[in-house]
Amino acid sequence: MDASFGFLDVLPIWARAAVWGALAGSGLLAGLLAAIVARPAHSAIARVMSFGAGALFGTVSIQLTISAQRHAGIARATI
Hints:
Layout: H1 13-38, H2 42-72, H3 74-78
């Protein structure tokens, strides 16, 4: 089932990709503005970055495990 997003459906595929890319990248701008306004300590920045790195590492390892189980089977993937 395809999702419908109103005005995005009439745009060419490259324009839809640009809109979604801008939306995803807007988080960086929001983070920049929050950092300028709040001036967090280095320890707070380190905590947030270490959480993000751990979440990314966990997601990648889970995806690799699922892929290995699909391609090689559970027994071979656990060895």
